[in-house]
Amino acid sequence: xxxxxxxxxxxxxxxxxxxxxxxxxxxxxxxxxxxxxxxxxxxxxxxxxxxxxxxxxxxxxxxxxxxxxxxxxxxxxxxxxxxxxxxxxxxxxxxxxxxxxxxxxxxxxxxxxxxxxxxxxxxxxxxxxxxxxxxxxxxxxxxxxxxxxxxxxxxxxxxxxxxxxxxxxxxxxxxxxxxxxxxxxxxxxxxxxxxxxxxxxxxxxxxxxxxxxxxxxxxxxxxxxxxxxxxxxxxxxxxxxxxxxxxxxxxxxxxxxxxxxxxxxxxxxxxxxxxxxxxxxxxxxxxxxxxxxxxxxxxxxxxxxxxxxxxxxxxxxxxxxxxxxxxxxxxxxxxxxxxxxxxxxxxxxxxxxxxxxxxxxxxxxxxxxxxxxxxxxxxxxxxxxxxxxxxxxxxxxxxxxxxxxxxxxxxxxxxxxxxxxxxxxxxxxxxxxxxxxxxxxxxxxxxxxxxxxxxxxxxxxxxxxxxxxxxxxx
Amino acid sequence: xxxxxxxxxxxxxxxxxxxxxxxxxxxxxxxxxxxxxxxxxxxxxxxxxxxxxxxxxxxxxxxxxxxxxxxxxxxxxxxxxxxxxxxxxxxxxxxxxxxxxxxxxxxxxxxxxxxxxxxxxxxxxxxxxxxxxxxxxxxxxxxxxxxxxxxxxxxxxxxxxxxxxxxxxxxxxxxxxxxxxxxxxxxxxxxxxxxxxxxxxxxxxxxxxxxxxxxxxxxxxxxxxxxxxx
Lengths: 474, 230
Ligand SMILES: [Zn+2]
Ligand SMILES: [Zn+2]
Ligand SMILES: [Zn+2]
Ligand SMILES: [Zn+2]
Prior knowledge:
The complex is a heterodimer of chains A (474) and B (230).
Chain A: H1 2-12, H2 19-25, E1 30-31, H3 39-47, E2 51-55, E3 57-60, E4 63-66, E5 77-82, E6 87-92, E7 106-110, H4 132-146, E8 150-155, H5 161-174, E9 179-183, H6 186-199, E10 205-208, E11 221-225, E12 236-242, H7 249-262, E13 263-273, H8 278-285, E14 291-294, E15 307-310, H9 314-319, H10 325-336, E16 341-344, H11 348-359, E17 366-368, H12 375-383, E18 389-392, E19 406-410, H13 419-426, E20 440-444, H14 449-467
Parallel strand pairs in A: 8-13, 8-14, 9-11, 9-12, 10-11, 12-13, 15-20, 16-18, 16-19, 17-18, 19-20
Antiparallel strand pairs in A: 1-7, 2-7, 3-4, 5-6
Helix pairs in contact in A: 4-5, 13-14
Chain B: H1 20-24, H2 34-37, H3 64-71, E1 81-86, H4 90-100, H5 108-121, E2 126-129, H6 134-140, H7 144-151, E3 160-162, H8 173-178, E4 183-185, E5 194-201, H9 206-217, E6 222-229
Parallel strand pairs in B: 1-6, 2-5, 5-6
Antiparallel strand pairs in B: 3-4
Helix pairs in contact in B: 5-7
Bound molecules: zinc ion (4 copies).
């Protein structure tokens, strides 16, 4: 008799979970150290099935696997005499910068009721207009999100890809969905977050990057570095991945893992890029991946096609302290006309040895490299006309928009310049309506396959834009 | 397929130069790439006889700090000398932080060859790591000083333990020096022994002197110290 009463009483008073723990852990996958709550509270939720735990690192079929970053690179697993489990404990070095995940460390995630947010009456404040190409893409984004489908948005540099997302995000928010925009670069997170906040003023937008203060905040709309995705599990209904191709091949597998872990079983994935990888292009052509193309820029003018110019054996010339006469002429012409220039080099070493040669042409030419503490300031100085030009490595191939800019690559046949990198570099030029022409020159010592493909990529896009009537005929 | 070894510090693949020599002779295994290796700055040239600090003026052989320590009757004669391997530059700062705070134990392997060399030259009976508090040990899972010794192939004797928490940074030099005893002995077997204390960084020298004092009072004959950086 009494046991029946007990059962019915538990049925009538369900376990009341901690709201704070729910907020902290929902859609996340975190180590105990990242959960600032009493151990007893966590244990109680585990027992009640509101929280689940899994080992951080597992040994499966004689291979180590990291449960957080998905790494299986056996070279990045090491062990240490662990004082917590009192044994030789294997840990993952691939994601060590997020704190150590080891055999004895558990990853916790919320498995109770889902996190929901109040849907505001009017979701979007953005009232901008879209180009014809953008409109087509925008409609498809809306459809794909509603259908929990995958979509590649293949938009040329300067097409205005962010605006293409707004209607889709609006529709998702109206349905109470959770959205994440992931990008490889912190700069982009910082630039995108305020734009989204302005477009969706009644929605809590979280910007996540290493060291960001909003790291533990739950919000309907998240802009995150791809790195921070590793802390999520079954969180999002929509994941938008910006510049998928910007990752080195080795990082690709781990990104795939992060995305598939961070999204819900039923969800939509939108890939956004100007230069899809070979695999993605192949999947699109074979019909495995649906895609929408925006082949024209917002200003309805064609993209400048790169000129390929013989630059001779640049390595040898450098050793002799000389610049190829064509390259010298290209540079001097622009310096005389006050056209800002970016000169791309295959490596920091080559760039460094070239700098004095270019400074003979103009003493104010500067170089900028990835770890340069003054990187931002130098790009700003170029934008404001304080420097006539910058020498750089591939780090500036994306994201830099400077009025009237023209670019050249020295040693364009080098392996570091992939098709997508070359298209991105060319994509820096002709961004504004009144200066849409601009010159892009690839100086080379023998054409590479990637160079030829980059040129035909750009030409194809221009042709398609023309055929679809997305260009203004002059 | 043969996959290249990764640099322990930057995770870049290290190119194995295949030559007749490397085919026939087993080349001593490199753990870090050249780029990383060149970022380590060895402490060389004129340095303080007591604490290994680089001295600007080669006239002196003991730095001002050490003179101050030796003039203080509480600390005089506790620590006979300190050796440090590297300058605590930005690169090392980053590496040690990754090792200690992120908990990347394997990094100790990068220092092992250097430490081995040093340890072989120093005379001591016991190698004693500066201990962590129980709380810190729980957070980190290992003691960074002990890890350095282990990776260099030396075993440690944990003769000391913390009596207090180690929130050093919030205290002034004065407070740190005059703070209550930080360490206590957990073994009595120090009588007449030559002890080498081991820690990752020499900052003010107060931690090492605190430890040395406890050992000295318990009858140790001489206490020296070795740190990775200063
Ligand atoms: Zn991992
Ligand atoms: Zn363990
Ligand atoms: Zn390295
Ligand atoms: Zn000194």
